[in-house]
């Protein structure tokens, strides 16, 4: 596929204003990459020899529509309702004599991370591509500008950026880049945990259906930043439902996942507790009783370490906790689950369960995935009815439970959902006194378990 710059460029008036004023102007970096791919960049980066003060003066009252203009360091930001661009001055306070702009431009591009981000474009000269970024873009490859060993030797964040760029574009890491990243993976230890978490979220939100393949390629890197996954590698399950060890099963399950990052993370962590729950019966068949709860506990700790926000952390952990439940094909059962999770999270749980099954013994998949499909149909029927009993229908509120000893947070919400499920099942009357009595009893039970 031959990629070309398509016209009209949204920021063409900005480029022409600079050029007509005697200042060379080039689009550069990720915006060139994205426009070649047919995407509209969030920010257009423009390189010029014009000084920041000159740039601001050129666009104040330039007759190009209403702009907001901001300046920081050697860059000037321009923003209107159509686009946002950042004009970066390469002059650094012009040196004496004529500066070789093309040499300056290539030096600037040579400092970029990957070849697909090291292209420039001007209305006059067209595409400037000294590192063959367009060819890599057309071939779907992420390559470093220059020697990847030099780039990664002391820069663990750069390794994560390489994987993230591959994931978001759906590209493959170049073989040299991959070898260098794995060789220097010890530098990942110095990367702050919250930075790792941010990069992982972007990786898991991209890649289309190629996430599992990317993880297979870069698993040494993933296991370095998530050492909690290591016990899964090579751990045999010794069960007729499984033909893979726990780690390979997880990767196979990820192959079946869509692009919902919450589902993807839940699938990644769903069996992380299995190595700690393994038992064998008399004939040597392996079992993992209670591994959902153990996996959820480990997942919660990992996501907390990585700085995931409370909401997404709770949703992922919840899916891991319930991923192995035995669903009953009844509207009554579905109403209970909807009270506990809500429609969106329940759909995710069924998707996690389907992925889990798809990563198991191929000979035993069909009947069980068909059951998940039937349960999904029941979910939509019940959700469409909108007659199931909900937390908001309870005769008590969260404030009432706080008065008897509950604390605000996830536990309070779980207690309310548990009460709603009991009312839905007919095990409890929706009366204030009965609800508070049951809530008090559950509070004592939970406190005893935790003590």
From TrEMBL:
Coiled coil: none annotated. This is tRNA nucleotidyltransferase (CCA-adding enzyme). Residues 378-438 form the CCA-adding enzyme C-terminal domain. Belongs to the tRNA nucleotidyltransferase/poly(A) polymerase family. One of its GO terms (molecular function) is ATP binding. Pfam families: HD, PolyA_pol, tRNA_NucTran2_2. The keyword Magnesium applies. Transmembrane segments: none annotated. The keyword Transmembrane does not apply. InterPro entries: CCA-adding_enz_C (IPR032810), HD/PDEase_dom (IPR003607), HD_domain (IPR006674), NT_sf (IPR043519), PolA_pol_head_dom (IPR002646), tRNA_CCA-adding_enzyme (IPR050124). It comes from the Bacteria. Residues 25-142 form the Poly A polymerase head domain. Residues 246-336 form the HD domain. SUPFAM superfamilies: Nucleotidyltransferase, Poly A polymerase C-terminal region-like. It comes from Enterocloster lavalensis. Keywords: ATP-binding, Magnesium, Metal-binding, Nucleotide-binding, Nucleotidyltransferase, RNA-binding, Transferase, tRNA processing. GO terms for biological process: tRNA processing.
């Amino acid at each position: 596929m031959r990629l070309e710059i398509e016209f009209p460029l949204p920021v063409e008036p900005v480029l022409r204003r600079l050029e007509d004023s005697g200042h060379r102007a080039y689009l550069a970096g990720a915006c060139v990459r994205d426009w070649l791919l047919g995407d509209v960049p969030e920010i257009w980066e423009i390189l010029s020899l014009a000084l920041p003060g000159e740039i601001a003066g050129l666009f104040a009252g330039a007759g190009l529509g209403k702009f907001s203009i901001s300046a920081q360091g050697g860059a000037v930001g321009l923003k209107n309702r159509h686009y946002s661009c950042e004009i970066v001055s390469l002059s650094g306070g012009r040196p004496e004599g004529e500066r070789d702009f093309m040499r300056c431009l290539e030096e600037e591009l040579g400092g970029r991370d990957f070849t697909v981000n090291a292209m420039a474009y001007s209305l006059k000269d067209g595409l400037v591509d000294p590192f063959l970024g367009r060819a890599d873009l057309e071939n779907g490859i992420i390559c470093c500008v220059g020697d990847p060993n030099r780039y990664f030797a002391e820069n663990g964040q750069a390794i994560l950026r390489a994987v993230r760029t591959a994931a978001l574009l759906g590209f493959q890491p170049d073989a040299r880049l991959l070898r260098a990243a794995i060789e220097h993976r010890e530098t990942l230890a110095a990367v702050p945990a919250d930075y790792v978490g941010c990069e992982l979220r972007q990786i898991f939100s991209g890649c289309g259906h190629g996430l599992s393949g990317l993880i297979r390629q870069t698993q040494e890197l993933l296991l370095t930043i998530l050492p909690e996954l290591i016990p899964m590698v090579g751990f045999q399950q010794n069960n007729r439902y499984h033909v893979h060890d726990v780690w390979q099963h997880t990767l196979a399950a990820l192959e079946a996942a869509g692009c919902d990052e919450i589902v993807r993370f839940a699938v990644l962590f769903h069996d992380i507790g299995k190595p700690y729950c393994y038992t064998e019966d008399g004939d040597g068949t392996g079992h993992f009783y209670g591994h959902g709860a153990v996996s959820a506990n480990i997942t919660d700790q990992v996501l907390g370490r990585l700085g995931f926000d409370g909401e997404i952390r709770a949703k992922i952990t919840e899916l891991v906790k319930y991923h192995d439940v035995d669903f009953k094909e009844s509207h009554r059962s579905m109403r209970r689950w909807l009270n506990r999770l809500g429609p969106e999270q329940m759909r995710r749980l069924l998707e996690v369960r389907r992925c889990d099954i798809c990563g198991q013994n191929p000979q035993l998949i069909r009947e069980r995935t068909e059951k998940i499909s039937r349960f999904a149909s029941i979910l939509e029927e019940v959700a469409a009815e909108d007659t199931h009993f909900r937390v908001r229908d309870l005769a008590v509120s969260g404030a009432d439970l706080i008065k008897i000893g509950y604390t605000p947070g996830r536990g309070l919400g779980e207690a309310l959902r548990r009460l709603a499920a009991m009312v839905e099942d007919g095990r409890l009357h929706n009366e204030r006194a009965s609800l508070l009595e049951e809530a008090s009893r559950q509070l004592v039970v939970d406190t005893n378990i935790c003590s």
